[in-house]
Specification:
18% strand, four-stranded parallel sheet, six-stranded parallel sheet, alpha/beta, 273 residues
Length: 273
């Protein structure tokens, strides 16, 4: 395999996943992953442009940034690309009125959206809100529409909390797709539009950027399909089997659970200062 210098030549921007890369969420607010606060600080002191990209749909951007700042991260709301604001823009542009199957923590993002007489369904990581009753209501709304529209804030299979792995929105999205015979529009990783919006925000072309994430498919694979390089960290939802994924091959792995390998986020950071 080529040396790090060759694989990362020409990098001008770094896209960082949040959950599983910077911190593990949890009922107590979560905790920063060892070395992540220092790594972000070092990246931001470098010549590289940094953008935080998350599929978190249980918190508004404001709440998420507030949590990260309390954990010690130097981050502001306007540095974060997340699916809820992008979804609101789509709803407004297309004149869609959603039935919302979402977490209460992100509902404020949709305060300016008309939800009367729904003509689509928006689904996010509703956690305990994914009851049979709520899923069935979303199903019924879709089945009553002549042209059903399902919009999902991400399609992740699972993510990691401090208590362990938990199901993500993708499993419930797939259930509605199957029941209704439709395909959801995904807003968030691995959607190409999501990555393009993040790149545009920092003024960097895809071939000049690297995505760092813990999700082999959503983070690494999605980024690579957009022309970026993708690095997978060995934290968060990382599983050893990811290194032998049949379709996605990261441009590298980094930041293992070995304490000796936790002080630097990735080779980009190591050579960036």
């Amino acid at each position: 395999m080529a040396a790090w210098g060759e694989r990362l030549a020409g990098v001008r921007g770094v896209l960082l996943d949040i959950s599983g890369v910077l911190y593990d969420c949890g009922a107590d607010g979560g905790r920063a992953i060892a070395g992540s606060v220092e790594a972000v600080a070092r990246l931001k002191q470098s010549h590289l442009k940094v953008r935080f990209c998350t599929n978190d749909s249980q918190k508004s951007r404001g709440k998420l940034v507030g949590l990260l700042r309390r954990l010690g991260f130097d981050i502001s709301e306007d540095e974060v690309t997340s699916p809820a604001p992008a979804t609101c823009q789509i709803l407004k542009e297309r004149g869609l009125r959603p039935h919302l199957l979402i977490h209460e923590g992100v509902r404020s993002e949709f305060d300016e959206i008309d939800t009367s007489n729904p003509n689509c369904v928006v689904i996010a990581d509703a956690a305990e809100g994914f009851s049979y009753q709520n899923m069935n209501k979303a199903f019924q709304v879709l089945m009553e529409l002549e042209n059903p529209v399902l919009i999902s804030l991400g399609k992740g299979r699972y993510y990691k909390e401090t208590s362990g792995l938990v199901l993500d929105v993708g499993a419930y999205m797939k259930a509605l797709e199957y029941a209704c015979g439709i395909e959801a529009q995904v807003v968030g990783k691995p959607s190409p539009e999501f990555f393009k919006a993040a790149l545009q925000a920092i003024g960097v072309e895809a071939h000049q950027a690297v995505m760092i994430g813990d999700d082999i498919v959503g983070d690494v694979g999605g980024a690579q399909r957009c022309g970026m390089r993708g690095l997978q960290v060995r934290t968060g939802k990382f599983r050893p089997t990811d290194e032998h994924h049949p379709e996605v091959k990261p441009d590298g792995h980094r930041w293992g659970r070995d304490p000796a390998d936790r002080t630097v986020l990735c080779p980009v950071c190591a050579g960036a200062a």
